[in-house]
Specification:
- The protein is mainly α.
- InterPro entries: Lit.
- It comes from Faecalicatena fissicatena.
Length: 222
């Protein structure tokens, strides 16, 4: 990396723009994973959820779809399961989860277009240093979060809930909220892995753009 590019990497404009784009990448990855139902459908067989829960695949799919529909912007205002009863605490928890997802989805409506516009603008300007930063930011976060998850997923899972929720309603009793039997921890681990993979893919794409633009700049300077 030339001294000129190295200095440009740490310009405040590149740092701020890359930070905003990183937020956009993460929001897009989370929203995509939330709505990527094939991941859960795969886990129904992979984790043998019918055997561990005692419910048929048809029942599992139907109630999972109702949960995902509820967490969508266009979904119903109140959660009801076709085959599961739900405690008052469970209903409150799902309302809190829905609020979090809706905030992320609403934020993505601003952050994702902003990310695309900033990316297109930086390509047009042939601003290679910007893409070096944009590749580094998400990769650094993926390495940190991915390492923690790999070392102790159970700790991360509990810590995540304690940070986001001010109560213990997320600790379900299967007798009162049987939906928890079809939502094994391993599925949430797979969802977290998919989010990180999506972010990493965006980071690698940014690195590719950096190398392409740097090559163009070098060729034009000759």
């Amino acid at each position: 990396m030339s001294p000129q590019i190295r200095r440009s990497v740490f310009s405040w404009k590149n740092l701020v723009a890359a930070f905003l784009c990183t937020l956009g990448i993460f929001s897009m990855a989370i929203v995509f994973t939330l709505h990527f139902r094939p991941l859960y459908y795969f886990d129904i067989d992979h984790l043998d959820i019918p055997a561990t829960s005692g419910y048929s695949e048809e029942v599992i799919r139907r109630n999972y779809d109702e949960l995902i529909d509820y967490n969508s912007i266009s979904g119903p205002s109140r959660l009801t399961f076709s085959d599961f009863m739900m405690s008052e605490e469970g209903e409150i928890h799902f309302e809190e989860v829905k609020r979090i997802f809706l905030n992320i989805e609403y934020a993505s409506f601003v952050l994702v277009p902003l990310t695309l516009l900033l990316t297109a603008w930086q390509i047009r300007k042939k601003n290679a240093p910007f893409f070096a930063v944009l590749s580094a930011f998400p990769t650094f976060l993926v390495l940190i979060v991915g390492s923690l998850v790999a070392l102790n997923w159970d700790f991360c899972f509990v810590l995540f809930h304690k940070i986001l929720f001010r109560n213990d309603y997320w600790i379900f009793d299967p007798a009162c909220d049987p939906v928890i039997t079809i939502l094994p921890d391993a599925y949430f681990l797979h969802a977290a892995a998919l989010i990180l993979l999506c972010v990493l893919a965006a980071s690698l794409f940014s690195l590719l753009l950096f190398r392409l633009l740097r090559r163009k700049i070098s060729n034009s300077a000759k």
